[in-house]
């Protein structure tokens, strides 16, 4: 019955196939989602280690504090690093922390690894690269800057497509910011807008070494198949690596798949062993193992009431775990369950649209009104993108009305003067519950690009803890409070007029934005 069994063959060979429908595995409460650990590592943590942030300013201040207090590692993956004063402050914080590490007794322990997209990070004369070169020159042994270049932008295509437009082919879109054992997951980039008035989502996982190790290894794996920024602003591949656009495309993608799946599967195995040991020691009472682990950690760890599952989507490399899990969550959502789904760019894949329109749960979909779309007021062709999103939204709304689903599927538009909207993810409320027990948070937008073109990562957070559920509920409410419900009248407003050429072009280009 479950769509899970139909989806299973899509997995790349190294991923184990689940042997029973998810709904029959753990039918009660939050544990019903434990089927996800058949695909990816499961990290059990205490809900007291999870903090949900709400504003760009809070996110920015946290980044600075975490950089300043880091002792072992700073790992940051983003689409790009901006070139303004706020971004320069972040770079200065990094320099200060690296300097302190250099002056400490013995060899410097701090390692900084930054992963950005090559095309976006190279845009303009002053760019992400020029911002980071001083760090590479001053701390060559401690700093690594990797620039991912999609293997799909190559040959004649690479020569002909101009800057900015070349970013439509594929990007490094993952946003993870980690400092020692603290991990921030978000959809926000390292740019002044995201630190001031561009609304996104942000969650801090504190004192979570296993999760930090996983994302460090993931960023390292992508970094290894990326171009390495040099001190003279040139780039080169690591020795023995296939070049992303000069080398054989299939060989490059196979190597990248191997590196990333190795990270996922080794972490999954580690967590299974850890889970088995924990289970065994709890059954044996106060065993030697639990004594040793409590001594090593300075005390007994609280029993997990929250579980983190990292979902990776890298279709160019044949990895589509996020897509599979998201589709399964939408398929399995029961009647009277509520799903609050948000995206800054409403351009759902056909599969996601079909599931929303054809399943039983109630949906509240939050999207950007044209005025808070990141492309609003842009010059040239990009200025028409908000109108294209209005057209896509109108088409979907018309389909909802045609199927008489307006009660079950509701669209809401975020609107806030002087702000733009970039939040993405979902919150799942089980039938009869006033609080969500699951959220997805990270970089994917649920659109074609996220599924097929870009490198994406998000986490499933499942919790039984009421206080954390309340935090997630408040986060959802705060975002949806700034919205109005979409109706037929919405599209009759003068600012919703879509020019004929935009209507004609949108179906041809919608897979690129």
From TrEMBL:
Subcellular location: Mitochondrion
Keywords: ATP-binding, Lipid biosynthesis, Lipid metabolism, Mitochondrion, Nucleotide-binding, Phospholipid biosynthesis, Phospholipid metabolism, Repeat, Signal, Transferase
Pathway: Phospholipid metabolism; phosphatidylglycerol biosynthesis; phosphatidylglycerol from CDP-diacylglycerol: step 1/2
Molecular function per GO: ATP binding; CDP-diacylglycerol-glycerol-3-phosphate 3-phosphatidyltransferase activity
Catalyzed reactions: a CDP-1,2-diacyl-sn-glycerol + sn-glycerol 3-phosphate = a 1,2-diacyl-sn-glycero-3-phospho-(1'-sn-glycero-3'-phosphate) + CMP + H(+)
Residue ranges constituting the PLD phosphodiesterase domain according to the UniProt record: 168-194
EC number: 2.7.8.5
Biological processes, Gene Ontology terms: cardiolipin biosynthetic process
SUPFAM superfamilies: Phospholipase D/nuclease
Domain of life: Eukaryota
Alphabetized InterPro entries for the sequence: PGS1, PLipase_D/transphosphatidylase
Signal peptide per UniProt: 1-19
Coiled coil: none
Gene3D superfamilies: Endonuclease Chain A
PROSITE patterns: PLD (PS50035)
GO cellular component terms attached to this protein's record: mitochondrion
Role: Functions in the biosynthesis of the anionic phospholipids phosphatidylglycerol and cardiolipin.
PANTHER family the record matches: CDP-DIACYLGLYCEROL--GLYCEROL-3-PHOSPHATE 3-PHOSPHATIDYLTRANSFERASE, MITOCHONDRIAL (PTHR12586:SF1), CDP-DIACYLGLYCEROL--SERINE O-PHOSPHATIDYLTRANSFERASE (PTHR12586)
Record-stated family: Belongs to the CDP-alcohol phosphatidyltransferase class-II family.
Protein name as catalogued: CDP-diacylglycerol--glycerol-3-phosphate 3-phosphatidyltransferase
């Amino acid at each position: 019955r479950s769509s899970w069994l139909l989806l299973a063959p899509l997995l790349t060979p190294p991923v184990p196939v689940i042997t029973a429908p998810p709904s029959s595995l753990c039918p009660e409460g939050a544990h019903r989602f434990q089927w996800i650990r058949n695909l990816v590592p499961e990290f059990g943590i205490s809900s007291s280690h999870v903090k949900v942030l709400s504003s760009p300013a809070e996110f920015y201040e946290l980044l600075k504090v975490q950089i300043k207090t880091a002792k072992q590692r700073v790992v940051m993956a983003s689409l790009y690093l901006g070139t303004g004063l706020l971004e320069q402050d972040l770079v200065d914080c990094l320099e200060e922390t690296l300097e302190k590490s250099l002056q400490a007794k013995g060899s410097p322990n701090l390692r900084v690894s930054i992963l950005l997209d090559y095309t976006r990070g190279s845009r303009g004369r002053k760019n992400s690269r020029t911002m980071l070169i001083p760090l590479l020159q001053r701390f060559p042994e401690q700093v690594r800057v990797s620039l991912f270049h999609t293997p799909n932008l190559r040959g004649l295509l690479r020569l002909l497509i101009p800057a900015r437009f070349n970013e439509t082919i594929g990007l490094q879109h993952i946003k993870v910011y980690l400092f020692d054992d603290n991990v921030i997951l978000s959809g926000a980039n390292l740019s002044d807008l995201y630190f001031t008035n561009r609304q996104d989502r942000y969650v801090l996982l504190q004192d979570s070494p296993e999760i930090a190790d996983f994302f460090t290894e993931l960023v390292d794996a992508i970094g290894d198949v990326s171009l390495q920024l040099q001190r003279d602003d040139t780039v080169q591949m690591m020795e023995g690596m296939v070049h992303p656009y000069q080398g054989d495309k299939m060989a490059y993608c196979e190597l990248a798949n191997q590196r990333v799946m190795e990270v996922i599967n080794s972490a999954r195995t580690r967590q299974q062993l850890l889970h088995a040991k924990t289970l065994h020691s709890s059954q044996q009472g106060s065993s030697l193992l639990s004594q040793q682990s409590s001594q090593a950690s300075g005390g007994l760890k609280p029993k997990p009431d929250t579980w983190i599952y990292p979902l990776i989507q890298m279709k160019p490399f044949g990895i589509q775990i996020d897509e599979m899990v998201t589709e399964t969550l939408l398929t399995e959502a029961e009647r009277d369950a509520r799903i609050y789904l948000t995206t800054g760019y409403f351009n759902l894949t056909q599969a996601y649209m079909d599931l929303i329109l054809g399943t039983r749960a109630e949906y509240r979909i939050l999207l950007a009104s044209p005025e808070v779309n990141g492309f609003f007021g842009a010059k040239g062709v990009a200025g028409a993108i908000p109108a294209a999103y209005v057209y896509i939204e109108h088409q979907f709304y018309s389909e909802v009305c045609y199927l008489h689903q307006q009660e079950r599927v509701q669209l809401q538009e975020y609107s806030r003067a002087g702000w733009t909207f970039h939040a993405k993810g979902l919150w799942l409320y089980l039938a009869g519950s006033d609080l969500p027990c699951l959220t997805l948070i990270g970089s994917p937008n649920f659109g074609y690009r996220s599924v097929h073109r870009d490198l994406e990562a998000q986490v499933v957070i499942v919790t039984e803890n009421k206080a954390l559920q309340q935090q997630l509920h408040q986060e959802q409410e705060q975002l949806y409070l700034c919205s109005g419900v979409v109706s037929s009248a919405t599209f009759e407003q003068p600012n919703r007029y879509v020019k004929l050429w935009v209507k004609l072009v949108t179906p041809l280009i919608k897979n690129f934005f």
